[in-house]
Amino acid sequence: MEMGVNNLEVPLKYFFDYAARQIKTADSIPALLAAAFMGMELIERATTVLAQTAPEDAYQTALAEASDAWWALVDAPTLTWPDRAISDTDVSDLAESIAALVMVVAEAILTVASKTTDPADRVACLRAAHHAGNVHAAMK
Fold first, then answer.
1. CA distance linking residue 36 with residue 48, whole number of Å
2. Which residues contact 51 (CB under 8 A, 6 or more apart)?
3. Rounded distance, CA 40 to CA 42, Å?
4. How far is CA 31 from CA 40, 92, 101, in A?
5. What distance in Å separates the CA atoms of residue 9 and residue 18, rounded to the nearest whole number?
């Protein structure tokens, strides 16, 4: 099954399931709040796609409310992560994972930049790839 902009149900379901598992397995108030925050971020991103592809008033409202909910959670003093110390090995592993994901995302962005016919898309993608490169360098 091809996963593209026209077939978002399958990949988004994996993200939704992951977010739901994180929320259900949170073992403290800070962990639950952090998981809910990440879930709200996912909801905001998904409603952005929905509002852009099917611009019904209800979807626009959902996007605005999801964004407001995300911003409301930013103000929660308990919203911190991680709630326990991370070992040097775990820090290194997380940095490596971030760097690896950045490379996958940067490759996708550069592919779009090389194939798009819209100059504004190309500029946006090249700028994003530049910043992604800086993220990758910082992780090394």
1. 18
2. 59, 60, 62, 63
3. 5
4. 14, 21, 23
5. 14
pTM above 0.85, yes or no: no
First to last CA, the chain: 35
DSSP code, position 94: H
Residue type at 38 in one-letter notation: M
Q: List phi, psi (to 5°) of 87.
A: -70, 160
Q: CB-based contacts of 59: which residues, under 8 Å, 6+ apart?
A: 47, 50, 51
The total number of residues shown for the chain amounts to: 140
Which residue has 């990758």 as its token pair?
A: 136
Does pLDDT of 110 surpass 80?
A: yes
Asked if residue 116 lies in contact with residue 125, where contact means CB atoms within 8 angstroms, the answer is: yes
pLDDT band at 89 (very low <50, low <70, confident <90, very high): confident
- Main-chain phi, psi angles of 3, to 5 degrees: -110, 105
